[in-house]
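Entry
Fold in token form

___
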Amino acid sequence: MKDSCDLPATEARALIGAKKLSPVELVESCIARIEAVDHAVNAVVARDFERALDAARAAEAKVMRGEALGALHGLPVGIKDLEDVAGLRTTYGSPIYRDHVPAGDERLVAALRASGAIVLGKTNTPEWGAGANTRNAVYGATGNPFDPQKSAAGSSGGSAVALATGMVPLASGSDMGGSLRNPAGFCGIVGFRPSPGLVPSEKRGLGWSPLGVLGPMARNVADLALMLSAMVGDDARDPLAYTLHGRRVRRGEDFARPGPIDLSALRVALSPDLGFAPTERHIATVFGEKTALFRGVFARAEDAAPDCAGADEAFAILRAVNFVAAHREKAEMRPKDVGPNVRANVAEGLGYSAADVARAELLQTALYRRWQDFFVDHDIILTPTLTISPRSWRELYPAEIDGRPTKTYFHWLALAYAVTLAGHPALSLPLGLDHAGMPFGLQIIGPRGGDALVLAVAQALERVLADDPRTARPIPDLARLKAAPPISAMAGFLGFA
């Protein structure tokens, strides 16, 4: 019999509602799993176990009284350490905020709690989410659950690892250059970047920038959709969460359960590199092998990609502008307490002119319009989630791919940031292992506003592929992790580089 922490969130929630699973039992099971394996991977970095148990007892009492229950009632969640949780240490991976304890929940956390979720702890992230390798100078590195010596990617790496190892059934994440999708791909779980504004954020400094979004992470698509239903909403504090006066636009119930879809009616484009990303030959080969197993389920499956010209330049400039807005003061006033990724982005941003920013926005708009033309004849695009197989977390970023130097510390994330620039929804679905025995992720990209379509396609594919060991979601060896030495004893564990 599996531990209750390994139950799908949808199943656990149904059992709680039927009085067949105690929220206390579920929280205790998650705590036991954290205590058994987290030493090997360092995913849950600030723990709130006592308050979680108090909340679980209150949730159980509510069930026994027969009261109305929220969509996530009694389900433990991990919260990425970029998101404020009242009364719980929240550092953003920065030594400047090493002892910071917020007075209140940010909107996302409050929405999850309002739906009945129980916050179990904070999950690790690189400093301010900068970079796709989860390590920082406060909590150290997070190891991949399939090999703790290797990267879990990022910036939502702690959330992905916590999910893969059964520490929590649901976890939050955020995404600019793939920070939800990248760790999902490296760790064998599901991560979803929704359309900008679908999940409101009152914290985004550049409120009209669509680059950064919040989103859900889970072990399967149904669980992810359930969590998303508690996150969406209309919120006037977020300019991108626009609304129509007197009318509710974003409704959680529209996303709670992916609708049925006929895969045989879809026109699908497949590309290992979107025509420009520096994809490792190994990953391109694995992508071809995996997709060959199911290309025939679609009405049409062709090798094609939208024109992504200008993506590298546009993302580099617009990303740097975001970093100047958010981190210039810290980088200038306390440079020794700011890591190399943040400092590099701030310095880069300060070197751009208004003409550079205007050119970047023109490039982004032109890319967006070419994507709309492409989606006239295509319903979905499939790519690898990442351009490489997981490497050592000691490598701050991949400086080369197949012997060719990368342009920037985030160039290897090109498959993700092209989608970010277009503003389309995208999901990373686990698709077995690559040739190195590490998880392989499939990125499913939908049309503008096609969040529900992406979820439906992902769930349909998940069902088609679940029974094939070549494509089923991989499971890490928990016994091996329990017996593993602590990651904190490894050379280079604590620090930015």
